[in-house]
Amino acid sequence: MSEKIAGITIPDTALVREATELVQAAASPLLFDHSRRVFLFGTLKGQHRGLKVDAELLYVGAMCHDLGLTERYRRTDQRFEVDGADLARDFLLAHGRSEADARAAWLAIALHTTPGIADHLEPEVALVTAGVETDVLGLGLTDISPEHIGAVTRAHPRPNFKANILRAFTEGMQDRPDTTFGTMNDDVLAHFVPGFVREDFVDIIQASDWPE
User: DSSP alpha helices (H): ranges in 50-78?
Assistant: First the structure.
């Protein structure tokens, strides 16, 4: 039987069930609940914007977007967003989705911490970012009814979420600080990792090997 939360039906397909199992096996309850809220809030934002969405594709993008923070899937040589993006792309291709669908999911995850770009791409790309912005930053909460917000958070609660998600970000990125250059992720390490020093874009230009 299909699961319904805040009027949103979770797709009852093999692909969605396997994506759920993949995330449950790798992620903490914190990240699992967050990822489900990203799907639900992203879907609600899509309804508010009048967007037509591939629910399976949005689900995979939302569910995999933070897998690069997990011990199982995180690497140290690239941004955590790319870890999750690569995983989602390979998962979708292995399940017979098209190259275009796999690329859309890759972009949705790779860009979810890069403001100002996702809204100009496919709806699924835009709505992963919208769901993340709602759940993590509280942006656009007024676009969603209090009843729907309550239904989502009852199904997937947010106990002490602000502190816990910042801890998860820190743990997932502290072993690859160089990958946070040019992103908002370096804000997290600057707050929570002693001795972390941000690289400065202006300093890099001024110290480059090019003669003046």
Answer: 55-64
Chain centroid, CA 184 distance in Å:
14
Q: Residue 12 class from Cβ within 10 Å (0-12 exposed, 13-18 middle, 19+ buried)? A: exposed
161: nearest Cα among 142, 137, 184: 137
The pTM for the full model equals 0.96
Average pLDDT, the chain: 96
| CA distance linking residue 73 with residue 91, whole number of Å | 13
Residue 150: both structure tokens together: 């309550």
Two tokens at 142? 């007024």
- 118 with 62: CB under 8 angstroms? no
Query: Backbone phi, then psi, for 110, in 5-degree steps?
Result: -60, -30
